């Protein structure tokens, strides 16, 4: 599955980091590994393989049960990103998604998305964000939630920062929910997940405290900043 803007530029070898040689640079921050920055004359992208987490990863790290092409995880994420990007949401533009059947009823998958150059993960810049920027982040998250967009792993590594702009990445298992009411329980659970990831960081001197920064984020989320 390839975005129309990249038709003819993507081949199956593009999903193999080894095929990129020195042009593939492992992404070191966040996640479970399995992601690379890849560069060529026509592409500046992030290649991400689908890897399991938790206890199941000890047995089967990268294979998923095949239930039909329409349900493979790379294609689901590609479709969601395509829709969000076309609607103007701050997400990376998808380039291509692919999968390979494995033994029995399993498959391995990968996705290519455009690299958001000039951005850094939220986890790496909390010491440099003003209170106003935290409010902007809250407003950005509210825009996703108002549209029913559920990010299954909203954490401080899946939010990228570029000056006053914020982007959400890694929409594996993400969906658009029908229940988009302001008091929908999934929204508060989504924010709580982000809060827990921020709690696990070592906040640098001068970054302020999480309580005050989170209060600013909530003001932006509520439209009161």
UniProtKB/TrEMBL annotation:
Pfam families xref list: Kdo
EC number(s) given by UniProt: 2.7.1.166
Lipid bilayer topology: Peripheral membrane protein
Swiss-Prot/TrEMBL catalytic activity: an alpha-Kdo-(2->6)-lipid IVA + ATP = a 4-O-phospho-alpha-Kdo-(2->6)-lipid IVA + ADP + H(+)
Subcellular compartments: Cell inner membrane
Kinase keyword on record: yes
Principal localisation: membrane
Highest taxon of source: Bacteria
InterPro entries named among the record's database cross-references: KDO_kinase (IPR022826), Kinase-like_dom_sf (IPR011009)
Record keywords, A-Z: ATP-binding, Cell inner membrane, Cell membrane, Kinase, Lipopolysaccharide biosynthesis, Membrane, Nucleotide-binding, Transferase
Pathway terms, separated by semicolons: Bacterial outer membrane biogenesis; LPS core biosynthesis
Name the UniProt record assigns to this protein: 3-deoxy-D-manno-octulosonic acid kinase
Organism listed in the record: Marinobacter metalliresistant
Lineage of producing organism: Bacteria, Pseudomonadati, Pseudomonadota, Gammaproteobacteria, Pseudomonadales
């Amino acid at each position: 599955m390839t975005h129309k803007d990249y038709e003819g530029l993507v081949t199956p070898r593009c999903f193999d980091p080894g095929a990129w040689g020195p042009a593939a640079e492992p992404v070191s921050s966040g996640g479970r590994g399995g992601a690379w920055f890849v560069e060529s004359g026509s592409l500046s992208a992030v290649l991400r393989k689908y890897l399991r987490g938790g206890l199941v990863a000890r047995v089967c790290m990268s294979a998923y049960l095949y239930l039909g092409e329409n349900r493979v995880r790379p294609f689901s994420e590609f479709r969601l990103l395509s829709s969000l990007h076309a609607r103007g949401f701050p997400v990376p533009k998808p380039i291509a998604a692919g999968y390979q059947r494995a033994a029995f009823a399993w498959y391995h998958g990968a996705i290519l998305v455009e690299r958001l150059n000039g951005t850094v993960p939220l986890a790496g810049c909390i010491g440099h964000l003003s209170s106003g920027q935290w409010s902007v982040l809250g407003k950005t998250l509210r825009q996703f939630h108002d549209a029913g967009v559920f990010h299954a792993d909203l954490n401080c590594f899946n939010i990228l920062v570029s000056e006053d702009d914020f982007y959400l990445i890694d929409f594996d298992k993400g969906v658009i929910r029908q229940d988009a009411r302001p008091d929908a329980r999934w929204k508060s659970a989504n924010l709580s997940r982000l809060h827990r990831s921020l709690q696990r960081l070592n906040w640098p001197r001068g970054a302020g405290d999480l309580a005050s920064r989170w209060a600013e984020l909530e003001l932006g989320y509520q439209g009161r900043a």
